[in-house]
């Protein structure tokens, strides 16, 4: 994974008011920590940070104005729940060659048999990899899988240098039979009953009234 260079500024103002002022300037308050160092409070450029963090586990080279550079990974990204803009970023300092644990996405490719329902039980898996060689994800082929087939974490083909950091028997993909319309309706009725929702009983159609003969 290529490094993304971001120029940062040291931050001396704290609190909600200071954070709002930083965001009004299209910047993002952030903190760097790790490897026994004191937390470094910084301000990141909003647009560059947004672009960089579109990539999961983005490897960032943070160049702090008037200080040393730090290689870091995003640990926690806080976003506005409505507008989605980045409110704050926690960055953990890493070293070249060291191993880190990160979640990587699971991607499916291919198609199972026509009457099968493929359930992705694990959207992501925890792995251990070198900080500078974190895979973008892992691809799982479901081509031709039949009902009853299962794929566990131990079945995944991980890139060289990447190892599992979860139990090997963790279920990742489960192939089951497509539910019938009756089963879907029964499950919906059960869910509605648990939620206290009552279905309206169907009413008998009114029979047309014949016009009286004159």
Automatic annotation (TrEMBL):
Family matches, as InterPro entries: Rbsml_bL25/Gln-tRNA_synth_N, Ribosomal_bL25/Gln-tRNA_synth, Ribosomal_bL25_b-dom, Ribosomal_bL25_C, Ribosomal_bL25_long, Ribosomal_L25_dom, Ribosomal_uL5_bac-type
Superkingdom classification of source: Bacteria
Gene3D superfamilies linked: Ribosomal protein L25, beta domain, Ribosomal Protein L25, Chain P
Residues covered by region (Disordered): 182-214
Database matches in CDD domains: Ribosomal_L25_TL5_CTC
Coiled coil: none
Biased composition (Low complexity): 205-214
Occurrences of domain Large ribosomal subunit protein bL25 L25 (ranges): 6-91
Gene Ontology CC: ribosome
UniProtKB keywords: Ribonucleoprotein, Ribosomal protein, RNA-binding, rRNA-binding
Record bears the keyword Iron: no
RNA-binding in keyword set: yes
Protein role: This is one of the proteins that binds to the 5S RNA in the ribosome where it forms part of the central protuberance.
PANTHER family, A to Z: RIBOSOMAL PROTEIN L25/GLN-TRNA SYNTHETASE, ANTI-CODON-BINDING DOMAIN-CONTAINING PROTEIN, RIBOSOMAL PROTEIN L25_GLN-TRNA SYNTHETASE, ANTI-CODON-BINDING DOMAIN-CONTAINING PROTEIN
NCBIfam families reported for this sequence: bL25_bact_ctc (TIGR00731), PRK05618.2-1 (NF004131)
Complexes and interactors: Part of the 50S ribosomal subunit; part of the 5S rRNA/L5/L18/L25 subcomplex. Contacts the 5S rRNA. Binds to the 5S rRNA independently of L5 and L18.
Family statement drawn from the similarity comment of this UniProt entry: Belongs to the bacterial ribosomal protein bL25 family. CTC subfamily.
Name of the protein in question: Large ribosomal subunit protein bL25
Record gene name: rplY
């Amino acid at each position: 994974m290529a490094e993304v260079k971001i120029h940062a500024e040291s931050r001396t103002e704290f609190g909600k008011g200071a954070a709002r002022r930083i965001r009004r300037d299209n910047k993002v308050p952030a903190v760097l920590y790790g490897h026994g160092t004191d937390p470094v409070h910084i301000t990141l450029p909003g647009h560059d940070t947004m672009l960089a963090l579109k990539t999961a586990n983005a490897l960032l080279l943070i160049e702090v104005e008037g200080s040393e550079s730090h290689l870091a990974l995003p640990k926690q990204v806080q976003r506005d729940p409505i507008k989605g803009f980045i409110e704050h970023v926690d960055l953990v300092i890493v070293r070249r060659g060291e191993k880190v644990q990160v979640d990587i996405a699971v991607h499916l490719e291919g198609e199972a048999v026509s009457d099968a329902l493929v359930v992705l039980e694990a959207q992501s898996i925890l792995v251990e990899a070198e900080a500078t060689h974190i895979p973008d994800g892992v691809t799982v082929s479901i081509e031709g899988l039949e009902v009853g087939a299962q794929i566990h974490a131990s079945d995944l083909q991980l890139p060289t240098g990447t190892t599992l950091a979860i139990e090997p028997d963790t279920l990742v993909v489960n192939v089951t039979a497509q539910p019938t319309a009756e089963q879907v309706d029964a499950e919906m009725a059960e869910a509605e009953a648990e939620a206290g929702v009552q279905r309206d009983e169907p009413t008998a159609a009114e029979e047309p009234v014949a016009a009286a003969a004159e």
